[in-house]
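Notes on consecutive records. When two proteins share a document, each keeps its own sequence and its own token line. Never mix them. Below: protein one.
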Amino acid sequence: MTIAYLVNHYPKVSHSFIRREILGLEEAGVQVRRFTLRPPDADLPDPQDQAEAGKTEVVLGQGAIRLLLATFGQLLSHPGRWFKAFRVAVAMGQGAPARILRQMAYLVEACWLAGRMEGVQHLHAHFGTNPAAVARLTHILSGVPYSFTVHGPEEFDGPLMLDLPGKIADARYAVAISSFGRSQLMRWTDPREWGKLLVVRCGVDAIFAKAAPQPLCEAPLLSCVARLSAQKGLPLLIEAAALLKRRGVDFRLTVVGDGEMRREIEQAIASNGLQDRVVITGYLSAEGVRAAVAASRAMVLPSFAEGLPVVIMEALALRTPVIVTQIAGTPELVDSQCGWLIPAGAIEPLADAMEAALAAPPETLRAMGEIGRARVLAQHDALHNARALGEAVGVL
């Protein structure tokens, strides 16, 4: 069986969980064809992502002429399907000229993609935003059934603007990565169709499952692995670090990641006099990320909005407790046995949890890490979850 995968931007540093899902399907015997709407990152640090880039077809990389030729080709060869897709695209624009124009661009992309569906039994998109829109239109044009995985929080912030109900109605299945995510899809779905709403959790790489215990951490080290964007709450983390400094707590914090807020966060570090305590490494290879997390007493992620961050699973799989906000699907994995759940947007509880992790005996942290690791191995095995997805959409 052959399945096509469609992502907005792939491979990408923060999308390694999609790579693991694809490789899990291939290990199960499914042929996977990879498509990305936009080109992959140019400076991928991970060799596995670099290899994926060579296997992935870029829709927008075809150029305007080829995309327009594909559009006219679909119109001439399947006018009924084309006009139905056109009407759906207009409807997804919801009467706003700018949104309708954007949907017309998705229709052009779908026309090219529909021509690449020969031999494909199913199309699966990741994210309920533009990839799901293009997959929906491709389904109408080609007849190939589709499904899509919703991660959040973007889909949960604007479900009607994204026409999430229409996308779910036309899909064979809609997949959430947590029970919380499924509940958000249920809000916009007729109860008679709740059976098409699935939970398939993201999986961690096999290297995490095989990770050997590291020496117990005696040093006052904390880590944070995150895209430097507004939803991750990094300015709050810097404020909490400044509060720890005022309390006289000895600590070092390594922030692994990059993004649009890096300059702002660096300025906050400097204005709080934390240059000798907080370091931003930028993006690291997978090996570098693992080393930073495994060397720390706890991994901190003070997000304001999430689905269920993969980095939490990865940290726990490395036996590192986590300090995370009590939002979305996070409490389905984390509790006081393997970390600290804190209110989102609260500085003092965040600083208190960081101080508690810094003061905890290494043996306590290791016991918490072992509990978290057991949960991850039980719930977030990449191969098992990829098989579950393959079975659900009918390619296994």
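Protein two starts on the next line and is unrelated to protein one.
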Amino acid sequence: MRRIAIILFLWASFLTLSNAREKEPVRAVWLTTIGGIDWPRSYASTQAGEERQKRELTDMLDRLQKVGINTVLLQTRVRATVIYPSRYEPWDGCIAGRVGRAPTGYDPLRFAISEAHRRGMELHAWVVTIPAGKWNSAGCRELRKRHPSMLRKIGDEGYMNPEREETAEYLADICAEIARNYDVDGIHLDYIRYPETWRLNISKERARGNITNIVRRIHTRVKSIKPGIKLSCSPIGKYGDLRRYSSNGWNAYDRVCQDAQGWLRTGIMDQLYPMMYFRGNNFYPFALNWQENNYGHDIVPGLGIYFLDPKEGRWNINEVKRQLYFLRSQGMGFCLFRTKFLLDNVQGIYDFLRNEYPLSAQLQKKETDFRGYSQMEIPTTFLRNDGKTMELPEKGPTMDASYIVFESLTGTSIATRPYLGKSADIRTIPNGIYTLRSLNKKGVRHKIGMVYIRRQE
């Protein structure tokens, strides 16, 4: 019997490890409820309205499931208002048409969780933390009545004061209420930072400590209720300046006092969804920086697919495709902002996810190009390689370069090779994407292209 028990234990362990290896990266969406801009589009003020509201959500989840979305971040606390019956805050107006009005007879959050789980998706409660809405809005007014010293007015907006200890306690109460009463897979903190318009009268180090105190308080409370719940947040898309790339003053660490990488390092955060609504060198080096400092946790960059809509921006679908392929090459998932633009199939983004960007397990079975790019998506500056040697452009008679330098996307020199002929040996260079620069005897460098090294396991 003992021998059988050991065999069963080893077999279960093997299955667990196998499942862990086959775990699909996070494929997520932000599902926005403020103003019903993603959902709901009808009010649950009557029985018929409730049924329409439910159908809207299940139809959305069905369509999300078809493109492999496995995580839904549902906006649960909106602006000092919520989409579930709470002892702390009133109903948001998106549910039944007016702040404080309850739906006819159902709990939208409980329904959403059940329907997401029915489709094999995780549902995380997206909690907007510091903003409390317009100063004279119903939710903010109600909060000011009960906690007058906890809010500060900036312009016509109200914000919870991160320098007040009661703010940390109050937000922990909200998150604990959700964790205790609902089978959510995660709590997702939005805007867990100082507003950029806040006039700091303390050091930035102390301000970062105030935000970290809120995160730690929430972590302690929700983990004491459900140890397995995932705590995540959506920091500013650039953590800080890199050696070769500037954040141009807009970053998490210095601008809004948000030490998101520190939260991973100390274990008070399980996942990060950085809002990386950028292109080119404002995206790739900073995405890699997040991944290089993940401390064993999931990094799920948020992609601004709303820029595909001509009313929002001037992005081309190929930009988003390149970003998605890059994230896959680095073992990262993605989160799309926001659901409506995906389901509206703006510039064919829905069709792309469904037909050309399958789940990674499917991709491994179908993939023939080792780089994972179709020819259309390969940037012309990417140099071909087979994992052992790499093609080099001819130097030409006027080019005095003696060496090729391989740089990471954060600007770190990884390796140097002699620039002698039409190829270079890359067998000892790790998998990854590199910038290639020529180097002459005077130390002058010129960019000559990029290379994506990906050897089959």
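For the record: The two ends are 39 Å apart (CA to CA).
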